[in-house]
Specification:
The protein has helices spanning 37-40, 49-59, 72-84, 96-113, 134-140, 143-146, 164-170, 194-207, 277-290, 293-316, 339-349, 371-393, and strands at residues 16-20, 23-26, 31-34, 89-93, 121-125, 156-159, 175-180, 183-184, 190-191, 210-214, 238-241, 252-256, 321-327, 330-335, 351-352, 354-356, 360-363. It is an alpha/beta fold. The strands form four sheets. It has a seven-stranded mixed β-sheet with strand order 4-12-11-10-7-5-6, with helices on both faces.
Length: 394
């Protein structure tokens, strides 16, 4: 008999009733150190006082009016994002998947308005994850994402990850845009080198192709810059943002240059809930904290501390781990054992991690995780690895 909740997830046998900072408490009272962060969502941890205040203050004033009217909270957050980024304009959504949909529409509309309606094809990359809508799965193209869903939306081509020669050869007079994650999350915490992003920007400029960055998982301070592409000193034409921007409240955004947004006039796109007062009030509170230079510098400091500990962990458990991947606080442990075994051992040790492709254990802690919690996390990962290592030796 099918359960009341559609069984599309392989859920862990855990249910949490409360959280504070980097810690979650289960319904049996056991506490867990959360290194998954709702998959990079809880950028400032659980029940962050500033976010709780922003939400409750706004909830007592106004929840929803729809985009038929001006929304001051939305305008404020958009102005903050424009001030801090490459973007000239912002459209708010409820999720990362919705940002993919608009980014694809915006890019195609750009070329249509410029008299090149034939430029409808996208170049994407193996291992990518851009959401689970029909357009997003067509962009990713992996069998597990598309199998059984019938004809895919046409116009998407997947290349080997960060193969610049292949990209150059693939761009034609029908290419609309290149869409890429500066750091693949679901794909196994794979970082695109700075020189590759620079080369990609140059290639897009020389061919009239738009460049779309998907920073849903790697953005909002997670690398020690507000957005990961800043390390390479390049900017996209369109960028997808979600997850951490709401700190746990459902919120996403598409950021774009005025040029890229050329065709997006009244009536070309919309959202009932996107950019509602509640979400934007929380988003402004998140950005007001995460966007500060001192905060971002501390993310980099914490990341260096955490990575140093993870490197030691790899050295102590060579039968379990192969290497550390990532940048800032989007980190991964490439495993020699099944990453699912490490996730399960983590439950027993009271630490939560997330599996990713390429047999990687994903670590996405709160950006403000205390140093003491980093030390505790390393200790619990050490215990989990020792347990898995004993099993691997049998």
């Amino acid at each position: 008999m099918i359960p009341a909740v559609l069984p599309t997830y392989n859920r862990a046998p855990l249910a949490f009733v409360s959280g504070q900072g980097s810690w979650l408490t289960a319904d049996d009272g056991k506490r867990y150190l959360d290194l998954g962060g709702g998959i990079a969502v809880n950028a400032l941890g659980h029940a962050n006082p500033a976010l709780v205040k922003a939400l409750t203050d706004q909830a007592q004033k106004l929840w929803h009016v729809s985009n038929v009217y001006r929304i001051p909270e939305q305008e404020r957050l958009a102005a903050m994002l424009v001030e801090r980024t490459f973007a000239d304009t912002v459209f708010f959504t409820n999720s990362g998947t919705e940002t993919a949909e608009l980014s694809i529409k915006m890019a195609r509309k750009f070329h249509y308005e410029n008299g090149q309606p034939e430029r409808v094809e996208f170049i994407a990359f193996e291992g990518a994850f851009h959401g689970r809508s029909t357009a997003a799965i067509a962009a990713a193209g992996s069998e597990k994402m598309v199998k059984g869903y019938g004809p895919l939306m046409p116009g998407f081509r997947q290349l080997k990850w960060a193969d610049h020669d292949a990209i150059r050869a693939a761009i034609t007079d029908q290419t609309c845009a290149v869409i890429i994650e500066p750091i693949q999350g679901e794909g196994g915490i794979r970082v695109v080198p700075d020189q590759c992003l620079k080369g990609l920007r140059d290639l897009c400029d020389s061919t009239g192709t738009l460049l779309i960055f998907d920073e849903v998982q790697c953005g909002m301070g997670r690398t020690g810059k507000l957005f990961a592409h800043e390390w390479a000193g390049v900017t996209p034409d369109i960028m997808m943002v979600a997850k951490g921007i709401g700190g746990g409240f459902p919120l996403g955004a598409v950021l774009a240059t005025e040029r890229a947004a050329l065709g997006m006039t009244a009536g070309t796109h919309g959202s009932t809930y996107g950019g509602n007062p509640l979400g934007c009030a929380v988003g402004a509170a998140v950005l007001g904290i995460v966007g500060e230079d001192a905060f971002l510098a501390d993310v980099s400091r914490k990341a260096a501390l955490f990575r140093q500990g993870l490197e030691s962990l790899v050295a102590r458990h060579p039968e379990v781990f192969e290497a550390v991947r990532g940048q800032g606080l989007i980190l991964g442990l490439k495993c020699r054992v099944a990453n699912a075994d490490m996730v399960k051992a983590g439950y027993a040790a009271g630490v939560l991690t997330v599996a990713a492709a390429d047999n990687v254990l994903r670590l996405l802690p709160a950006l403000n995780i205390p140093d003491a919690d980093i030390a505790e996390a390393l200790d619990r990962l050490d215990r989990a690895a020792a347990e898995v290592g004993r099993g691997a030796a049998v």
